[in-house]
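Workshop exercise sheet. Pairs work together: one partner reads the sequence aloud, the other fills in the structure field after running the prediction. Swap roles for the next sheet.
Pair: D.N. / O.F.
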Amino acid sequence: MKLYSGPLSLFTAKVRIALAEKGLPYERVEVGWSRDSRYLPHHPEVVRLNPKAEVPVLIDSSASVYDSTLVLEYLEDTYPEPPLYPETTGARARCRQLEAAADEIVFPHVWTLIDGVFYPAPADAGAVTSAAGAREALAQICVELDKDFGPGPWMCGNSFTVADLSLFVFLHVAGTLGAPLPESCTSLRAWFERCASRPSVAQEIAEMQAFLAEALSPPQ
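Structure field:
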């Protein structure tokens, strides 16, 4: 199994956590990245395998799968143990909805912060306003997630799922860019700490932070 992976790609991070949870060995092929050029030029194999020229791309035997949601579903279908989706149809639907919300509702605000705060950009009034709006929107999303949190320790009950790893990845990065979980969101904050303490998640955070520290360190 081979994974084309971006060292700071949040969508690839989702897949890396899932692979670690399932204990699946794989070859990790990192595409190039720099703060100035980002992921350009695109890795030629990623361009060949994915019409969007984006990671993650998973190669497993004769299967080639791109898009993090589809990769996670492929892994679950092909390697179902331990499961990362709930058993019941209702809970599975909730899991998929929460993962979709992470990708389509949470991430756009996180990207506003990444693009305007992390990457080099002119410090104009528009960028400052956009970042402030993103932080406000993320705080409100957290409030809603906290209200909707069920009785179990995880987003979909008693088991850690794709919903948990997806939301955690984006909310963690949001916190590093000035949008931490609101103090009032006690259930969500407790969930966040549970996620962070899982070995698969802790390893992912540590590796991304180590890469970032080395990449941004001044040349010797």
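Discussion prompt: Helices lie at 10-22, 44-49, 68-78, 89-118, 125-147, 162-176, 186-197, 199-216. What would you look at next?
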